[in-house]
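quick one: pyridoxal-5'-phosphate bound model?
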Amino acid sequence: MVMTSDYNKKRNDIIKELTTFKKIDYSFSDGHILGSMCSAPHPIAREVYIKFLETNLGDPELFPGTKQIESNLIQFIKELLHAPKNATGQIVSGGTEGNITAMWIAKKLSGKKEIILPQSAHFSFQKIASLMDMKLVSVPLTKQYTLDFTKVNGKITKDTAAVLGIAGSTELGTIDPLPELSDICFDENVFFHVDAAFGGFVIPFLQKLGYDVPEFDFQLKGVSSIAVDSHKMGYSAVSLGTLIIREDKWLDLISVESLYISVKKHAGILGTRSGGPVAAAYAVAKYLGMDGYKKIVENCMNTTRYMQEKLDEIGLTLIIKPTMNVLGVKLSKPDIVAKRLSENGWRVNTMNHLSCIRIVLMPQITKEIIDEFIPILKKTCEEVGEL
Ligand SMILES: Cc1ncc(COP(=O)(O)O)c(C=O)c1O
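yep, here:
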């Protein structure tokens, strides 16, 4: 048995070592990460996560309480997305797994291999093509960086397994013409997946706040599945997403017999998985409720507007008018600007193909942080000849 003093010494040495590494990391809490779609988790998520550290939802009969929390979370997301009664949810690690799982179902349902998707699709679709031997049929974008619906015609063929629409694109937070895509998929009886990994916790509240955004959820009759991430605008801890599918019987298509554990069937990709992020996401959802999320989106849109005004004041312009709390700032040398900002402790993402940097106004970004950032951005841009 380890002596207490031995344990304490070892523990202290290990914590010291890990703290040294942790110090190298950027931190969401100080507001200097401006490019990520994740956030500092809500305080209740931190508290709850640790309590569920030993739970394993891959073996749910051992953890019926945590399994119930998972069902409650799925129910919350179903309500958020106006899912019909027959719908069900699959907890996933995030947008990537949500998209993979949706395309797995679409391939099984149709027996086909082609995915029609906008050029702005997240790179998880490249993984899907490689992993499941599927073919990506890319649709060009409009000048507003949304899928050009006029270019879809003729692309849906006898080989189409699924169509993808994005509700909050990774690059610029744009929303594809989802009602139009829904109609065509319904008429053609094609699986229609909506990637709302980022926008799933934004668009419902933009609608409530009176913003002009299209319908995007299961109220559209052609929508087959929606992926949404609690670890993005759901204000919870990584890694947690939910895939909602219109028909619970579709889950059978991605289920196998699980002989040596207590449940008879096991659906989805993962086996062992922690209940920690699930409990954390549910705690945040319950704590905030729909009204709390609405307030967060309202605040994020206010800081987005503020950032826009400040960028304008220093002479920088945006790629497009933002749909949500994601901004693409036009630059001729985005990589150089991002590198210099990083050297000064600020992180933005670079999108060279659009010649811009991406700034995401997550809940922890305040006007004070923007006031701190703007003079540094201005100085950096002047030094590299952008201004
Ligand atoms: C629209 C969209 N889909 C999918 C993903 C992938 O999500 P994750 O990294 O959580 O797997 C992202 C990530 O930013 C995203 O923006």
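The pocket of pyridoxal-5'-phosphate is lined by residues 37, 94-96, 99, 122, 124, 166, 168-170, 195, 197-198, 229 (CB under 6 Å).
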